[in-house]
Amino acid sequence: MKDPFSSMLNTWQHCSHRSNGTNCERCKIRQISICAAFEPDDLDALQSMAQTISFAAKETIFLENDDSDAAFTVTEGALRLYRTFADGRRQVISFLLPGDFISVEADGRHEYSADSITEVTLCCFPKKQFAAVVKQRPHVLQRLYETTARELINAREHMLTLGQRSAAEKLAWFLVHLGIRQSCIDFEPNIVELPMSRQDIADHLGLTIETVSRTFSGFAREGIIAITPHGVDLLNCKKLEKLAAT
Amino acid sequence: MKDPFSSMLNTWQHCSHRSNGTNCERCKIRQISICAAFEPDDLDALQSMAQTISFAAKETIFLENDDSDAAFTVTEGALRLYRTFADGRRQVISFLLPGDFISVEADGRHEYSADSITEVTLCCFPKKQFAAVVKQRPHVLQRLYETTARELINAREHMLTLGQRSAAEKLAWFLVHLGIRQSCIDFEPNIVELPMSRQDIADHLGLTIETVSRTFSGFAREGIIAITPHGVDLLNCKKLEKLAAT
DNA sequence: CGTGGCTTTGAGGGAGGTCAAGCGCCGTGG
DNA sequence: CCACGGCGCTTGACCTCCCTCAAAGCCACG
């Protein structure tokens, strides 16, 4: 899709649902998202530019090099952010969950591709309006900076994993961290939903699908996890955390 | 060194050289560093808080979990930023060169350790004064944000390398990128200085020292590079870039 | 109930790790 | 001035963890 109109805002007419009736005040993820930087009496600035967009599962949200004409937060669902190589190799940079934020890229183009794993709802801020709002509110820029600094720490932690950890350590790390992130949203400790495929997990951790599958089976055999239809139960968190530890 | 006084500002009295006579106007790396955000007529704000610190080669600059009481830019030399595991594994996050910036960490503690590879000179901004200066200048915060966003892109590019590339591809990528960075400073295309050890390179790329050495030898045998006493000459950049490509 | 996509499992192979020895360079001391 | 020692780098032989290739199992959905 080299189509210059394939970027997010331009494609939302293709999306399953679109609405302007965003209500920031009632938003479930406002407090954990970038939007927490807005005071209650300033929410109008946010709300007036916000657009809600929904995607079905397995839809392209944007591709690398697409024009980036909006920033957005994820309000529901899961998506993957990834880069593909010419020969088909793929690195999944991260899985985005409710509360996660995608900023306008520095040069106005997306560095990575993104597509929905499950049904996804995004809260979308058109680039120009967003920039104007930020410019008038240094504390929002401050929040944006802190969010990006946190992302940087996450990326570097991921670097440790990719560079130094074994297959079992990688998967333990992945499960522990995804479990923590999910428990912030739905508070089910020890039950980890895995909406993404084995291939996604493999490409996230620099492994193959077979190694992921074998390692999961090994964990299950040792009673560390139980494999369920849509995820895993963490039966022995201690052991997993020990494997994942630095 | 669990000593709470081991953090940078507190240790600078141990350093080989320290001086307040910073001259921002003549600073070679000002234009490529965070300091470019300061207008010429606002340089006093920067200069009045800046402290120059020098380190000999192979000195500890800070350790992970040390209090972070200053931000700094590198003005001369090379250092490594890294995290070590309990069992001795080490991931070198990045090599810092003139113009690179280390910010105050979010929680006031360093996430990583840093030490000098060569003799190093830093330009140091005490945390509190730096925060105050930034607070009054949204355009500096903007620059800080952009710098961090650029770091995030670099970290993610490194993730691709660690997760997807082979040993030869990793080393090609490393040489090409280090060559580009160095040519911004000293403008010697095709001559790459390698002040860091093979072990540092190995820990940067998720390889072993032997694999780094063998791969370099292989490149030399194929006429792609020539190994020199303190670095390598890039004889066939095309080939290297092809290997490093996505 | 059949089909196709995703996952699991097995068998074999290879890229890179491990272990060990040797080399080259440089600083030190006789 | 040269012998020695140490450290970092290179090279070789072997091994292992994970990848590759292949086949079978398991759902979900029409």
Describe this structure in words.
Two copies of one chain form a homodimer. The first copy, chain A, is of the alpha+beta class and 246 residues long. In chain A, 39% of the residues lie in helices and 22% in strands. In chain A, strands 1-2-9-4-7 form a five-stranded antiparallel sheet. In chain A, strands 3-8-5-6 form a four-stranded antiparallel sheet. A three-stranded antiparallel sheet of chain A has the order 10-12-11. The longest helix of chain A is centred in the middle third of the chain and has 27 residues, at 138-164. Chain A is globular. At the A-B interface, strand 6 and helix 4 of A face strand 6 and helix 4 of B. The structure holds a DNA duplex (30 and 30 nucleotides).
Key structural traits:
homodimer; about 20% strand; alpha+beta; DNA-binding; 8 helices; about 250 residues; about 40% helix
Strand content of chain A: 15-25%
Q: Would you list the SSEs of chain A in sequence order as H and E? A: HEHEEEEEEEEHHHEHHEEH
**How are the strands of the biggest sheet of chain A laid out side by side?**
1-2-9-4-7
Radius of gyration of chain A: 19 Å
The total of beta strands of chain A comes to 12
Helix content of chain A: 25-40%
**Overall morphology of chain A:** globular
Structural class of chain A: alpha+beta
Task: List segments of chain A where confidence is low: pLDDT < 50 over at least 5 consecutive residues.
Answer: 1-7, 10-14
Look at the structure and give the mean pLDDT of chain A.
Answer: 90
Largest sheet of chain A: 5 strands, antiparallel
Give me the oligomer status: homodimer
Count of DSSP-assigned helices of chain A: 8
Q: Give the terminus-to-terminus CA distance of chain A.
A: 41 Å
Which pair of chains forms the biggest interface, and how many residues does each contribute? A-B, 37 and 37 residues
